[in-house]
Fold this sequence. Notes:
This protein is an all-alpha fold. It has helices at residues 6-21, 24-40, 46-66, 70-105, 120-136, 145-153, 166-174, 181-214, 221-252, 270-276, 279-290, 300-318, 322-330.
Amino acid sequence: MLFNSLSFFAFFIITTLVYFVLPQKLKNMWLLFMSYIFYMQWNVEYALLMLVVTATTWVAGILMQKFKSVVAKKSCLLTCIVFNILFLCFFKYADFVLENLGLIMSREFSSLNILLPVGISFYIFQAVGYVVDVYRGELPAERSFIVYALFVSFYPQLVAGPIERSTNLIGQLKEKHYFEYNRVREGLLLMGWGLFQKMVIADRAAILVNTVFYNYSLYSGSCRVVAAICFAIQIYCDFGGYSNIAIGAAKVMGISLIHNFNAPYFAVSIKDFWRRWHVSLSQWFRDYVYIPMGGSRCSKIKKYKNLMCTFLLSGLWHGAGWNYVFWGGVSRNMPNYR
């Protein structure tokens, strides 16, 4: 169910109207039910995978809070993280690994042809961030499975982000939300702007970009430059538009999500650009990968090693291919890391 489809807007209207009519104690149950309905429009079976991720991280959070021993807490944390990251790697990188093993060993391995579950990278990162936050004592383990399951599966940001923090979203899911005209108006305007970015700008730019890029030898250098500029506009308006629709839809219901883009093409430097682009992902890698590895509070050699490892992983997160790994490697010193 794409954000720019009529089916989504029918879904959004029904979900939102019922949400405001229901008593407070049923609102989260309704949103959880509709979030799973939303996700199952792509693949019914893969909703079970999201449920597994939800259950394992929820149980891990409760166990860590019960354990008195630091060793037991750390063991629980590492077990949960390893399980869920391996879960992600299997679905996202199994065929990539087999392909490269085949090249190394000079033999051919049969492809598993695994269908990548929609949004799996987003909701697993969000769930892993939660267990780390509980381990660090930044918030107590969530006792309500309904609230926690909604945190993982909240439909506006489920399949394309932003990657929310437990410290921001879980508390909001417990608050009482009522219909407020100004807030609903702002949310709908933001959704409208996101739709304009996606359908009017990005989709129209894509026509020119695809025409030139698919037959670039037929076009002059100036045409290729124009197509490249249009591609930059397309990718920003496509992703930024989706993010604005997600943030606007949540805002209508009284929930504030992190802004994922901050006028990146008005940046004054490459470093500033990466502070403004896909903010939630950059901050996730900074707080849950880069800083735990030592960040910049170490020797220069270790700092550059931490940066390189973080951005190689960031590149690989974007896709199973060496081009993504290379992109992550060459952009290692761009973002806003301490």
